[in-house]
Amino acid sequence: MGSMISNYIVIVSISGVLSALLALFAYYKKTDFAGTRAFILSSLTSAIYTFGFALELSGSTMPEISFWIKVEYLGMPFIAPSSLLMIMYFVGLERLIRKGLVTALYAIPFISVLLVWTNDHHHLFYQSMYFREGAPTPLIDVVMGPWYIVQGSLTFGCMLAGMCLILWQWNRMKRVYRRQLFTIFIGQFLPALGAFLYLMDATPYGMDPVPVIMSITSTLYIWAILSRGMLTAAPIARENLFESMRDGVLVTDLSDTLVDYNRAAADMLQDLDASAIGKPLAQLFLPAGQDAVDYVMNSDPLISEERELGWNMNGETRYYQVRSSPVQKYGGHQVGRMIMLIDVTERTLLQEKLLQLATVDSLTGIYNRMHFMELSRGLLNEAALSLEPVSIILLDIDFFKNINDRYGHHYGDMALQHIVTVCSSHLREGDIFGRYGGEEFVLCLPGTALKQAALLSESMRKDIERSSISAISRPIHVTASFGVVEARGKNLSLEDLLSEADHALYTSKRNGRNAVHVSSGSSITHFTPV
Question: Are residues 415 and 270 both part of a single domain?
């Protein structure tokens, strides 16, 4: 029977060593888990408790055993409160951990330590202590005092609360995090079960099984830390933040295979569910359109970048700001990348609308005067360097005031839109078309000589003359007058060219309207196609 006690002492001592190693390992491990200190305190006090219990079993006299019981209580009362705080951090309830709560949890253990060490004077913790009859080795039985019940209630309350918090979070967690959660639950449940059996006097010779059980739980914790990254961060707190984000988040490995995502990402990507884990990112982005696929195929997972993509979502085009950043472990070892999808559709559409308001004439849909001038200056500067010709055309609707006065401003607006439709059908890519003011329009034609511009003006004039605007009473016919000038070989500003084209235009007006006149600088002539 003595060998059984000796084996029990060895196992308990091993448990103490494991708890001490666990505390040291957690202390030196780099981590962003805020509950690490509570975990270290729980492991350290477990080591004190188990070492004290091993020495208690090796004692042979009442004073000796009584002393080691006092040593046990330097650690045992603090284990359960520390474990509860660690679990609270783990499940994301750190906002509830305030100075008042910590004081309340640790006040009773400190009082318990004081009362145990001074028990001979008041017997508030133990009413009496005596040797158990029939035990194979000197073992102590106690008669509980009132404070023993207080301390026991706190211990079981903390352990029960910790297990309830874990069960509360169980269904909210992804499977990858449940292994850590299960390990912590076992670390609470087994000691609680052992303590309950001990109080019920259901253990062999009334010996406390908790120190032996702690060798099992410490081994589980070490395994979870090494293989599951249990102390790397607070997974549930991270998960709560991850899932509550309004922006979509995708996590991939180095081969751009999906390893995790949040709820917002599932709303942004078609068919993104648990079955998508392990699939290539390009395959998941395929329904979003060519922009999204090009991004995956051409982006570098090793580089942080940000860009905006057009995104097909159930037949509707949305706009996502995509931010990609490498995911690294401690030591700088890259393991994948995180892609954040931020829905900027409203902002992008607003920017486009503001840009349109700043650059486009709202009635006709062509450039306004300010933006036309800005673009045309750029073309003139490029033409000066390349020695390419550039022509300017000004045109004005004939008798426009009569249309407004006779038919109303609605038909006047229709006339403006009609002119734009007819002229636009003659333009090439790269030509700039703008509303110069009122019923006057202007074109800037890169790579176009004066004669070509005049021929184009004549074609537009004829099409305007032959077409009409539908009205209730009868069709409305309109005509337009044109003035054309070329910038090639002239050191003239855009304003000078427009002024010269304006003179040619008003020559058309003065000579009967519905005509094209060209300015060569020294003279203005009526253009008649040969």
Answer: no
Contact of 518 with 454, CB cutoff 8 Å: yes
Dist CA 528 CA 308 (whole Å): 51
Per-residue pLDDT reduced to its tens digit, 436-492: 999 999 999 999 999 999 999 999 999 999 998 887 778 899 999 999 999 866 677
Closest among 527, 443, 450 to 487, alpha carbons compared: 450
- CATH number for the domain spanning 479: value is 3.30.70.270
Per-residue HEC secondary structure of 244-290 comes to HCCCEEEEEECCCEEEEECHHHHHHCCCCCHHHCCCEHHHHHHHHCH
> What's the confidence (pLDDT) of residue 4?
66
Q: Could you tell me the pLDDT band of residue 229, with boundaries at 50, 70 and 90?
A: low
Same domain, 207 and 71: yes
Assess whether 55 and 145 both reside in one domain. yes
Q: How far is CA 218 from the centre of its chain?
A: 36
Of the chain, the percentage scoring pLDDT greater than 90 comes to 34
- Distance CA(73)–CA(115), nearest Å, equals 10
Select from 234, 253, 279 the last residue of a domain: 234
Element of type H or E holding 129: strand 126-131
354 falls within a domain: no
**CA 244, 245, 250: angle at the middle one, nearest 5?**
115
User: 239 lies in a domain?
Assistant: no
Condensed to tens digits (0 to 9), the pLDDT of residues 92-146 reads 777 788 888 899 999 999 999 999 999 999 999 999 888 877 666 777 778 889 9
Tokens representing residue 194 in the block: 């052992």
Same domain, 330 and 364: no
pLDDT at 325: 85
Per-residue pLDDT reduced to its tens digit, 329-343? 655 677 788 888 888
Segment (H or E) for 128 = strand 126-131
Q: How far apart are CA 336 and CA 321, in angstroms?
A: 20
Decide which of 46 and 238 is more confident. Answer: 46
Residue 220, C-beta contacts closer than 8 angstroms, at least 6 positions apart? 183, 186, 187
Domain enclosing residue 326, as ranges? 245-349
Query: Would you give the DSSP letter of residue 132?
Result: P
End-to-end CA distance of the chain: 127
Task: Report CA-CA distances (Å) from 194 to 9, 163, 213, 401, 406.
Answer: 17, 15, 7, 100, 101
Both tokens of 463, joined, read 């099409």
Pairwise CA distance, residues 427 & 415, whole Å: 19
Whole-model pTM over 0.85: no
